[in-house]
Predict the 3D structure of the following.
Amino acid sequence: MDVELLKPTSYPRLNQLLLEALRKWRFFPAMEGGHPVESRQDIRVHFNVD
């Protein structure tokens, strides 16, 4: 699974931690005719840094 930040924060360490966490997520594959197919999914993650 490829993971990228489309809008990284101005905090490099936070970006690194976010990427590490996202790479641990697991998803069920998209299916077509009962077979897994390649797909793309954009996921928005919102957070605040105080």
Notes: The chain is about 25% helix and 10% strand.
